[in-house]
Design brief:
With about 425 residues, the protein is of the alpha/beta class. The chain is about 40% helix and about 10% strand. The chain is built from 16 helices and eleven strands. Helix 8 links the parallel strand 5 (about 170-175) and strand 6.
Length: about 425
Amino acid sequence: MNTRNPNPIRKELEDLAAVETHLKNPESTWFNVVIQDVDLTSIDGQFAAANPDGCHFLGCEIGPKLATAIAQSPTCLLFPKNKSLPFNPYRAKLYAPEELLGHFTTDNLDVERRTYANSIDWKTYLTVADPIDNKVFTNDSVDTILSRRLHDTSIADALSDLLQSTKKKGVVAIMGGHDMRRQAKVKTTQPSTPLGDEPWEGQSDDSVYTRIALLAWKLTNEGYLLISGGGPGAMEATHLGAWFATRPLPRLRAAIKTLESFPEFIPGKSTEWLIPAMKVRRDDPLPMADEAKCQSIGIPTWFYGHEPPNPFATHIAKYFENSVREEGLLAIATHGVIVAEGNAGTVQEIFQDACQNYYGTYGTAAPLILFGRDYWDPPVMPVYVNDKAKKVFPLVRKLAEEKGFTHRLIVTDALREILRTITAFKP
């Protein structure tokens, strides 16, 4: 069967300099060229005179002469922006945290509340769901729905561009619950003891949040690109660890102590949750020379838009469609998926990744690591509501046995075993 892609490969131009370079080349043609989110008004007459036949314009600002040339061409396509919406459906790059969340000063709560209320993140969420009950609107007009689909397509394209340019060993996802507490230690009557030979392996009284941050710190130092769902809890710990990857571990632990000042995400308290995180970013900024090494990608969604994205991811790929976001997040985790304790959404992601491995959707089955033996493989299912442990591992193992990827499935409490499994994998 011929599997060649029948669709033409189009050249993408995403800034004015690239357009001008193409324009100056006498041998250039505009057929199979896509210009995305570029202000072309400064070269209006020059571009119009160059015969733009065949060019596709996505969300570009154009002048009257180019508009006339496009209208007269039977092969040009123009997709204008819907300026009544707070988001740009055609953006060519992923978001930076400050772009979505605004610039916090972390000094005045009333000012910070106004800052977040005026942010792209919050204004966009108000077009998606009712902020009182967080229920997603079901009666949106078709042009708004189309703008969201175009936005998600643009984000997926920008994410693909970033992944193709990265110099990392591979992509590792860490999944887990949004309600995991920002907690340095857990209360215990036992003395704290090392869990391994290396400081990054943690102490016996370290919280799960701390241990995820330590693991992310180590994996980033090993050269992997860390991704997560981009929200609070375990997701935040992932990006926090990557953020501090080039700094000593005591500074990471100090940051966790700072974050404890607002220990758990509470709906309706987004600003209060963001403030200590922005304080950590302000007081311990990412060194410019370390930006590439400490890179991580958060992939949140406005479907859960009452949860703001955590600001420790260096890049944010925020989607409207949660189904597209989750499938894509797991698909790009080429070197493994690590799952810490979580709720229904986390369980869904375990089986979604197992399904990808089961059917070989994206090639070789990558490691699927359930972090927390007592949580994911308790001797019996707990009968108490407050005990959220879930006997998930046996069922996933059954799927792995049917398709022969049991060697890629583990449940463990040891960070060293997780590291060994990830580094040994060769896709």
